[in-house]
# Entry
Amino acid sequence: MDEATVAKALQTDLNFQKVRIQVRWVQSQLYILASRDEEQYINYEFLFSLIQTRLEQLRIPTVEGFTLYGKVGSSQEPEWKKVGILTLCPSPIQPVDTLTIVKGKVEKIKAEFDPSHVFPHTTRLVNEPLSLFKQSWIKQNLVKVFIALATIALVGAWFGWERSQQQLINQAQILNNQPFDSNQPYRVAILESDHQNIINTLSKLKSLANLPFFAYAEAQAQIQPLQMRLTKLDLKLEMERKAEKDLISAQKLAEAATAIAKNPPKSPQEWRLALNKWQKSVKILQTIPASTFVNSAAKKNTKEYLASYQSVTLQLQKQLISVAMINVFKTDTGRGIQAEMGDLKSSGVSKGEFMNTCTPFISFNLDPNQIKKTQEVELAPLAMAMCNYLWTKK
# Structure
């Protein structure tokens, strides 16, 4: 006999009660679930007595007891529970008093009607002294009490375990239902916490056993969505970690550039070293995705570093032009330019007229490629600086 046979037998007897019967058979115990509709009232005590009577009639040899649970519809928690012990041993055959039947044939008749041929234990119980019989009775009942208490403890532990597993399913559902958009910024710490929660929940879901009356299928249904969510979260976490790392790297480069450019004047080599570090820092910041949490900080830093870069670039340009102007004026061409522009200024022209004549004159007499190669400046700003100097020179 199996679970389905027992369930069918009970369901047939209880159809008039309008309940649905489910049976789980675990070792020597039957766990029976009776489900009713919300509008249907059930007398569970009466239902319990009917089921106990029917189980004793079935005489399943290996079953010693049963637990009946009552619940409403799709509710996860039972509303009623009771544990029962089955009495399956048949009534002993009463011994026949052969002395009153045939005198002189006592031994023969006793042998013919000796009940120990069918139930050996019956003869032993009848023939043993009364004290021994009481001891045996006490032992049997103590065993039954122990079994009952153990069953109650087992059922209590089972319900506690089931409740904890239902909480696990609820936690998985909450994780799956939380909004998550990989195009939105997230803190690394929050993503790491969610990542660990999903890992722990998946591990527990995968370790669940398929036990009686437990929503095993419901638990397994949460695994695939959680795994898909974990994959997306891993990609987002990797992106946020890299963006955070790049931001820190860019900040360190900018700090080094600031330290180099501090307390000018500096040599052109020092200015260029600082500029190179700011340039690298800005390039790193520009690679940080807009969907990351540190992108706002990256944009702010980019603006600051570009301003520092431009400021130092101007200082370097002024320094290079000053050095180039001194070097040009030392040459024969430079001395000729000074003489020509000195005569022009002495003629009484205005500054505007002087500048309009001076800058094209210098540009004509100097080779832009040579100036770029030797002085590392453009000819146009150098010519403008030389003309300004010559106009203000006394």
Observations:
- The first helix runs from residue 3 to 14.
- The chain has a mean pLDDT of 82.
- The two ends are 123 Å apart (CA to CA).
- DSSP finds 14 helices and four strands in the chain.
